[in-house]
Design goal:
Number of domains: 1
Strand content: over 45%
Oligomer: single chain
Strand order of the largest sheet: 4-5-6-7
Distance between the termini: 44 Å
Radius of gyration: 16 Å
Largest sheet: 4 strands, antiparallel
Number of helices: 0
Shape: globular
């Protein structure tokens, strides 16, 4: 059974949501939320997620890169990179990916 991962940010908690395929005859929960990151030290402003990574832009001009994965029934998020942008302490307003080019576009410091 294949499911899509949706990532959402509530206050300082990163939540992963899982949406399974629809089957009108089946009785199951089609959507569930699980905590992925809790208690982020910086104030998050935006988020971009792929199958294996989550990028978080912060209010103080940093981009945090987390690798996400599952260990049994528990989701794990490991901080891989914490990068301060050259725009100073201005917030990261948006992060978008261009997967075909392997690019990450970051809007900050406006």
């Amino acid at each position: 059974m294949q499911c899509d991962i949706r990532i959402a940010l509530f206050s300082t908690t990163l939540v992963a949501g899982f949406i399974g395929p629809c089957n009108a005859n089946a009785m199951y929960t089609a959507f569930s939320l699980e905590s992925l990151l809790d208690g982020l030290s910086q104030k998050p402003e935006c988020i971009y997620a792929t199958d294996t990574h989550v990028y978080i832009g912060t209010a103080d001009g940093q981009v945090l890169l987390y690798r996400i994965g599952r260990s049994g029934a528990v989701w794990l998020a490991t901080l891989e990179v914490k990068k301060s942008l050259p725009c100073g302490k201005k917030p990261v307003e948006r992060i978008e990916g261009i997967p075909r080019l392997n690019y990450l576009v970051i809007l900050a410091g406006i």
